[in-house]
User: What shape does this take?
Amino acid sequence: MHPPDRESIMTPPLDRLPTFADIRDAARRIAPYATRTPLVEWAALNERVGARVLVKPETLQRTGSFKFRGAYNRIAQLDPAACPGGVVAYSSGNHAQGVAAAAALAGLPAVIVMPEDTPRMKRDNTQGYGAEVVTYDRASEDREEIARAIAEEKGAVIVPPYDDPDIVAGQGTVGLEMAEDAAARGVTLDHVVSNASGGGLIAGISLAFAELSPATRVWVAEPQGFDDHARSLASGRRETNEAATGSICDALLARTPGEITFAINSRRLAGGLVASDDEVRAAMAYAFSTLKLVVEPGGAVGLAALLSGRLEIEPGATVGVVLSGGNVDRESFCTMIG
Assistant: This one.
């Protein structure tokens, strides 16, 4: 059953919302295992955009995306005795790999519910970390219902992809590092652009900047036709995408913002930016040829919005942009960038 077309925002209890202190704790927790990715600048990109641009390449993160941060932060706090069956997650690929890798580090078995149309590389990598993969049809089946049934049967704990305080806090370490590394250069980021599916990454980033650089405006970037965050910010309600498939940005196809994540994002974000699939392809090609980085479609949507002029940038501004992941198979990547 599909969710309703519009859903009123219900603010979770304050004790369920993550805080900046939780992000600090997450940073300490993940430090031995996660990569502190750099904040990188290219003169060619600055000239192209007409502003100073600092890029956070989470393509270099463990498992190839930011998702390892939140997954490890959540799983590292589990009591193994309370989850004899290990962990269960549902994901189109990046959270799947993050959970699989984090579970392996914790010595826990993992089952991942993945769409049948997940890129083969993401499925293979998830299994390569030792997880069992169960597939479903994202157009007709409910992944959360499938995951709940598996968790109940196995005595496992569900590790959700975004709507969880520990997940948000882990993803917030991306923003923490960006703000700290910019400050170390004597730079204040005027704008930060990052993508969203359920909103965990952008929520964590916005919490970090609210504490460390409150003047920074944080923007969410989404694929055209799947801009539920942009529409939700405009309406003040959690809006739902009509379609479950139909964009090359396979990692960004959540139907609606999370309850916890939107409670944060509705207060913190400056607005939403949208990029078409063609603009995403162009951004992937630009990242490859100019930045020398392989970026998957969902990971490139923030760069696509920036290159396409979706963000109005004042003279002399400095912009941070997150490249959230690089998990794309060779054949698809070559086809997309032409």
Remarks:
- Confidence is low (pLDDT under 50) at residues 1-11.
- The radius of gyration is 18 Å.
- The longest strand covers residues 217-223.
